[in-house]
Amino acid sequence: MKKYKSYIQEIVPLYFPFENWEIVPGPSGVNNTTVFILANNEKYVLRFYETHQDEDKVNFEHAVLLALKERPMSLSTPVPMRTKDGKTIVKTPSGSLTGVFQFIDGANPALEDFEEIYSFGKAAGQLTAELAEVSVNQLPVYRPYYDMDSTHPRCSIDQIKDFSLNPPKDFVEVAQELLIIYKQLVSFQHRIPFLKRLPHQLVHGDLNASNILSAGDGKISAILDFEFVTNDLRVMEVAVCISDFIDDKEDETIILKKIASFLTGYGSKIRLTEEEINALPLLIQLRSLDVFVHFLGRYWDGVDSIDIVKKYIRKAARRVSWILIHHDKVIKFCDTLGLKKM
Hints:
By secondary structure, the protein is α+β, with helices and mostly antiparallel strands. 45% of the residues lie in helices and 12% in strands. The chain has 2 domains: 2-102, Phosphorylase Kinase, domain 1 (2-Layer Sandwich); 114-336, Aminoglycoside phosphotransferase (APH), C-terminal lobe (Aminoglycoside 3'-phosphotransferase, Chain: A, domain 2, Alpha-Beta Complex).
């Protein structure tokens, strides 16, 4: 927050020109910096976008959020505030983009309790249903997950493959994991024509424990951080959520029970086609590969350390391997839990 301190004094009065305000303590994000503001006894979140400096991306996110605000949804979602000039975005002198949102109370859930995971699935299903009805007069900037050349501007598929097959000496210790990633990248490219035929719609794209809130009763009450909202595969939302339950250090039975709890909640709101269900294991792998590419790009940009990118290399390789082993079980779960359209 220190590097933005002088900007905060200039930005906040643009949103609250007549109110007294102050900075109050609060957590920051992983990809972006957030500052909590108290104005007229109401709490707000000032966000500095650090992943990119693309106004079109932020404008699209804000347009979707403002459209969701008009939907009859029980879940809370961020509401962008407008400046005295009617804008929802302010650019700092350094070029960083900022936005202010109404604060939403709650806590990030651990997603260890099966009932809480069921509620997460139900919330994700409700969001899928609502986003299917949202229409904005702007085109999304982010490409679908399967367009991996667009994951990070520094990382083309050819560059990723070369890095994975011929890792620099500082990455030799994860060479085996990179080989697993390379093989899956090659395999994945052959499935893209099939994926393009599946149902597409607006998706959040990054649903995980850090981007949802619980009101304290075990039920998910809010969904945050729509930075990556775009038009993508409908079932990709499910794949993103499920991928975080896969931890090879945890007992297989527990992992599968968590997946079942989520799918049961999601299935109470949304039914998927048979082709979408068959694609789910592949898309879970894709989510892990995408996160690896994201952090590799941030490492090449000098934003993240080598230890962080190694962490995500190992995590991607483990999850890809787990899905290769449990592919049929995941699909069977979808069938037995009633997730498929009849």
